[in-house]
Structure formats: C-alpha cells, structure tokens
Amino acid sequence: MVVAAPYAFALEAEPEEPIIVINEVMVNPDAVSDSRGEWIELYNTSSNPVSLLGWTVTDGKRDMFIIDEDIAISPDGYVVLARCGDPLRNGGVHADFEYSGMYLANGGDAIMLFDKMGAVHDALFYSEERGFTIPCGASLEVKDPFKTNTPSSQWAPSTSVFGDGDFCTPGTCNSWYVPPDPVQKPPRGALFFLFKKGILPVDGFLE
Ligand SMILES: [Ca+2]
Ligand SMILES: [Ca+2]
Ligand SMILES: [Ca+2]
To answer: Does 196 lie in the same domain as 142?
Structure first.
C-alpha cells in the first residue's frame, strides 16, 4: 500500500498514550477498620501529566465512584484514592481523593478503571481462586508497573512498614519494584582501546 510511509510517520507523530495503572491496593487493613483504611494507588507510567477528572472506578457490579475533582497525576507520579481521606483516621495515608460507594472485599473483588471517555484503562481481578494471597495488614503491590498487572504473580504483599503499622507504600514507589539500571555506556577511552585492538569496528567507534 502506498500509504505505508505517511502512515508510519503519523504513528511516530502521535503523542505518547498515557497509561495509568492500578499499582497498589489496600484491601484488608489491620491498623484501622476497612471502612477507613481501604485505598487504591494509581501510577502514571507515561511521560505526560494526566487529569483524572471524570474517570470512574467500579467493581463492575454495584460499587462505583467517579473522580469529580481535577486531580492531575504527574509523569512517574502516584495518586491515592481512599475511602477515608483523613490521615489521622485512615492509618496515616495522605489521600489525593476521598471516595464513597466502593468496597474492596477481602476474599476477592474487582477494580476497574475507566477513563473519561468510558474506555477501560486498567483492571484488577483479585481472589484466591486467581492465585492471589490477600494479606491482613499489608497492601498488595504490583512488582513492576511497566509489565502487565493481570497475573497474580505480578502482585505481592508490601514489605514496607508505614504510618500506623500496616505494610504499604501509598503515594510512593512500591517496595517490590526495583527500577532497571540506567544504560551503562563505557567511557570514550575504553572505546578507543577496543578500536585500536581491532575489537570494535570503525562504525561502532564513530557512533
Ligand atoms: Ca466491591
Ligand atoms: Ca476490605
Ligand atoms: Ca506504592
């Protein structure tokens, strides 16, 4: 097809898609009651800020709330949506948004995130049947937000003690996440040595 080249250019010119992931959930707090201590952490994996105004969180059944405040989630940033927004009552969590009408069942439940256009953006279905171990007094954390968070193997109880004593990392990097090392480039002198030895081709040295 003759449109191949312009189409490829258009793809490259598209702005990067924002990807907001369900990154951590406090399903069964121990330091405070569930009615005060449940929360959901979102993480922005993209390099663009995203407004969450008009986004919906639901379990697909009767639980649902809409984010009706203009909350921005910055690149590489976190937003905490909490059932109780008072850190003196919710275990010490500083929430960005307080919701009602959403309950996280301790045995298993669903959390679906819809964007303002009504498109499903991310979803978590946790239950023991699906291989999840839902701890008491610890959140469930995604191990790597840049990989799919669907399988239970991508989730683990937090190992960081927080606030009133439960294990969790609300609003910060998960305890399980180890960022990849930045790409290491050998120093210029080492490249010249390899070039002189004939190990590195001219193309590689001039790169
Ligand atoms: Ca529910
Ligand atoms: Ca619960
Ligand atoms: Ca976290």
So the answer is: no
